[in-house]
Amino acid sequence: QVQLVESGGGLVQTGDSLRLSCVASGRTLGEYSMSWFRQAPGKEREFVAGLSYSGRWTHYADSVKGRFTISRDDAKNTVYLQMTSLQPEDTAVYYCAARTKRFYYSADDVSPADYGSWGQGTQVTVSS
């Protein structure tokens, strides 16, 4: 199983940018499709962005499309979430997650139940 540690969250203002990092250990990220999820207070955890294990394919929630970008640095075994034009509704704890099944990707995999490894989360707060 892969271990994940997120960082990069913080308090920013509307319109600012932020980059989240997710460092993996234990396994190579090239074996796993990776995603970012977020959870706001009182709400369910929701899918934000996904990246195929090959690194070739991405998919995004409609609410972040065009503003967020998911990417991977194989040399650092790290996945990133670049967030721009942040809005107060983006305020949440952000989690990275590795797909349970290795070498598998589907743009339909947006349920937390499809992911077996999770980081501890990093808080992003966007003030208006």
Could you explain how this protein is built, in words?
0% of the residues lie in helices and 48% in strands. By secondary structure, the chain is an all-beta fold. It is globular, with a radius of gyration of 13 Å.
Short description:
This protein is 0% helix and 48% strand. The radius of gyration is 13 Å and the shape is globular.
List keywords for this structure.
128 residues, mainly beta, seven-stranded mixed beta sheet, four-stranded antiparallel beta sheet, 11 strands, 48% strand
Rg, Cα atoms, Å: 13 Å
What's the helix-strand series? EEEEEEEEEEE
Measured distance between first and last alpha carbons: 39 Å
| General form | globular
Main sheet attributes: strand count, strand direction, barrel closure:
7 strands, mixed
Kindly state the mean pLDDT as a whole number? 96
Helical stretch tally: 0
Given helix and strand content, the structural type is: mainly beta
User: Helicity, in percent?
Assistant: under 10%
Strand percentage, roughly?
A: over 45%
Number of strands: 11
Low-confidence stretches: none
Write the topology of this structure:
Elements lengths: L2 E5 L2 E4 L4 E8 L8 E6 L6 E6 L6 E3 L7 E6 L4 E6 L8 E8 L15 E4 L3 E6 L1
Parallel strand pairs: 2-11
Antiparallel strand pairs: 1-3, 3-8, 4-5, 4-9, 5-6, 7-8, 9-10, 9-11
